[in-house]
Amino acid sequence: MDPEIAKKVRDVDQTISEEAKQVWQKSKTKIIDFISDRLNARQVEYAGVLKIINGLKPMIDNNAEIKKIEGDLRTEEDQLRKINDEYEILKNLRKALDDLINSILSLTTSREAEYDLFESEFKSIQFKDTDENFKIVAIKRRRRSLFKETITKIFTQSALKSIYNGVFKDLDNEQFILESEFNEDCKKAYINAVLENDTQKVLLSKYDKNHALQELLGDFDNIIYTIEMDGDQIENMSPGKKALVLLKLLISHDESKCPILLDQPEDDLDNLSIVSDLVSFIRDRKKDRQIILVTHNANLVLGCDAEEIIVANQQIENNAQTNNKSFRFEYRSGAIENITIIEEDTFLGSRGIQQHICNILEGGKEAFLARKNKYTNI
């Protein structure tokens, strides 16, 4: 190479090297400053992280307690799931029990409805034809005394005062529970009282729940048969009217033809009932059967048109008006029309049957006429 050219090349190379060194020096300073800044920033970040680590260190150190708490939490969650499962089971059992109780109550209601149906159907039954204005009726009645006896021997007194809003607390009152209140709610109240309480708190010692429910769900209804006449049931009639109804019932439905003996059938009957009911009944029945009647009432003797009258007399010591012929008790018989005097010195023979009727049953001729004269407007 030409020496001059070589020198120029060396000069350019040297110039480039020196300029490169200058640029590098400048760039190296900037790079070092940049690295220094980054390092400082990293140190600050490290200090922050270290501070956080130091803050978390106690929690990290207590990691075993956290694990224990987590374990307890999982145990409680398992318990909660079991409780929820058992609650669902219990809820289903409660529903099944309610359904069973409702079914039982429905059966008791149906049983009571059968009584109502029987009572209704009984009205359509045709009995033996009779001209009498009475009939046999069937009535459903609640046996309150049996129900009262049952609940008082099953429940404690404190339980009775709280069952069904205390409706059983006044057991001494005969109307302590009306039939309209003896409904499904009432029955459910004492069923739940047995099932949902401690047995010793609600039941007397000889009863368990099963035995108590068996008796409580028993039949407290009954059908009674009674006689009804003129719209009155026999238990609401006067004693005299009761006797008259029973007399009609016995005779009207008895096909026997043997004689009938009646002892003072007019007792407790007013004279209007005797004349309008009893007399007409006896007059009608004596066509078929012989009737022997003991009475102190003239309406029966005369109104029934007795074919034979028997007058009895008891002789009283030191009373000449009651003299008998031979015995202390003597009798005389005859028709109503008999006025024959047969023995003037005896009570029975001194007057006819007709006069005896007037004296004994009417109080004598004078009493009869006195009453007759009083009825001036009839």
Name the features.
378 residues, mainly alpha, Rossmann fold, 3 domains, three-stranded antiparallel sheet, two-stranded parallel ribbon, 12 helices, 11% strand
How would you characterize the overall build of this protein?
The protein is mostly helical. It has 3 domains: 3-61; 144-219, no CATH class; 241-374, Rossmann fold (3-Layer(aba) Sandwich). Helices cover 57% and strands 11% of the residues. The protein has 12 helices and 7 strands. It has a 3-stranded antiparallel sheet with strand order 1-2-3. A two-stranded parallel sheet has the order 4-5. Strands 6-7 form a two-stranded antiparallel sheet. Helix 9 (271-285) links the parallel strand 4 (260-263) and strand 5. Helix 2 packs across helix 5, helix 5 runs antiparallel to helix 7 and helix 8 runs parallel beside helix 9. The longest helix has 60 residues, at 63-122.
